[in-house]
Amino acid sequence: MTSAAIGASLPGEQRRWFRLAEWQLALPLSLAFAGLFLAPLLLLVATSFFDDDKITQPGFASWLKFFGDPFSYKVILDTLLLGLKTVCATVVIGYPLALVYLDLPPRLQKVLLFIIVLPMLLSVVVRTFAWIVVLGREGVVNQTLQWLGVISEPLKLLQTELGLVISLTQIEMPLMLLPLISVMSRLDPNLRDASAALGASRWRTLFTVIVPLSMPGLIAGCLLVFASATTAFISQTVIGGVRLIYLPLLIWQQSLVVYHWPLAAVASLSLVVSVLSVIAALSWLGRRSSRHLHA
Amino acid sequence: MGRRRNFLDLSYTVVIGGIAVLAVLIIVSPVIVALMTSFTAGRSLKFPPSGFSFGWYEQLFDPVRSRPIHRAAGNSLEVAAMSTLIGVVLATLAALGLARNRARSARAADNLFMSPLVLPGIAFGLAALVYFSTLGFRPSLNLMIAGHLIVTMPFILRTTTASLSQLDPALLDSSQSLGASWFYTLRRVTLPLIFPGIAAGAFLAFMASIDNVPVSLFLSNARTDTLPIRMWGMMETTLDVRVAAVSGVLIAAAFVLMLIMEWTVGLTRRMRD
């Protein structure tokens, strides 16, 4: 007797059996996740509660040492600020591009989307390298400004926070644009026409109609850019240099140079908690604004 | 009043249009600059490049002088291929099991499986290092595959779940009521219909693995390093123009891959939606 015949006679029974089997299909992934994701993270938390680099003395000394040092606070604050500055820059530069995307004919929209997505598929290392060439002493920016006679000595752009924020703006831009364009292209075009017909200028339409309605996409983009910029180890070390210290570099130094894993664990848990709490706050704001909109 | 509005609308066009042009410039120009630099005849990363030559590409493809780069590229491809393959199997199974399940536990599991996307990768990289060395493993490509699996699988799960939720349940019901077994329905109806979703996810996962730094940084040693780690090392030390040549190859590869994905599964449309 085949299962199909049983199914034909007992549809309800059959369906329940299916659901049980379907749920079980997630078991292999669950096992892999427990063994390769949850267990390592729990061990990381456990490691942070040891005092010495040999991981033999349990205690709170690593936490006390990390948070007793004003330098740690500075590094955490700098890391979060770097994320916020990058978010602001990507919004200011990216939002107008998303607006223009909406007004383009479909063919050009396709081309623009291709231009936006392509850098995303390029290795972060390649994009970081490109900025070394652009911002270096003999790079594009310095050569152009010197040729124009604006400056006589090359500007120092690499190993400064300004250079880092400029680079991260381009590196993280696709993460801002994709959710933004996704939400904006679902907006009803009649809303804009109605606003214009009622006499609103395009600026007023932008700030009273488009911006509030595209808030979910904007918030989603901000979240992605923030999470990515605060943890962009390669860009931070290569463009920021060794004197600009952010949490990822601190974690790397503590774990693979100094070999003090408990301190590295404390630093990385601080990174997780501080980044995730900013993300939680942003997405709470996003939910609130969309509820406000639908009310 | 009308003139004022005209002026305002003009200023809107100028400001918004101007920034948009600047944005496209910022997005595109570094890629073009890096590409041009890779053809320099000189020994430094000066711009504009001094002369045109394929010299750095010749050095890059020289099997003796660039052996560490070739080995790193091989490692990258192997880790990306294996972690994507395992990820496709595990994530497709899990998506089939969870996508239609509205139970709270199923939603929670789905959120948990997506969490590596928001967790700072460097924390997971360190956790994996501490975990594997506590268990007594030495650095190897297998450990890298395991680590990459966790951080790239969510891409496959997301696109596959999205395809499944767009699948018309009536198709599955009619297949069943026509007497097809569960497995036959899966093979002949479900999988062919969700295949573009799986393929798009696999592509994103593969690219994410090729690009991954935080996990590779902690799990690799000099023998098992991947291309991004090796390039990072070169940028931090010698800043050899070969980095530009590697970048050139990767830019060309990304361009070709993207055209292929666009023609086959409509990648940009999938990423936008």
Describe this structure in words.
The complex is a heterodimer of chains A (295) and B (273). Chain A has 295 residues and is an all-alpha fold. Chain A has a single domain, classed as Orthogonal Bundle (MetI-like fold), CATH 1.10.3720. Chain A has 15 helices and no strands. Chain A is globular, with a radius of gyration of 25 Å. Chain B is mostly helical and 273 residues long. Chain B folds into two domains: 24-53, no CATH class; 60-272, MetI-like fold (Orthogonal Bundle). Chains A and B meet through helix 1, helix 2, helix 3, helix 5 and helix 6 of A and helix 1, helix 3, helix 4, helix 5 and helix 6 of B.
Tally of domains of chain B: 2
Decide which structural class fits the backbone of chain A: mainly alpha
Strand fraction band of chain B?
under 5%
Q: Secondary-structure element sequence of chain A?
A: HHHHHHHHHHHHHHH
What CATH architecture of chain A would you give?
Answer: Orthogonal Bundle
- Kindly report the greatest chain-chain contact and the residue count on each side: A-B, 98 and 100 residues
CATH class category name of chain A: Mainly Alpha
> What is the tally of beta strands of chain B?
0
Provide the succession of SSEs of chain B: HHHHHHHHHHHH
Q: What radius of gyration of chain B results from the CA coordinates? A: 24 Å
User: Could you tell me the number of beta strands of chain A?
Assistant: 0
List the total number of helices of chain A.
15
Coarse morphology of chain B: globular
- Total domain modules of chain A: 1
Mean pLDDT of chain B: 88
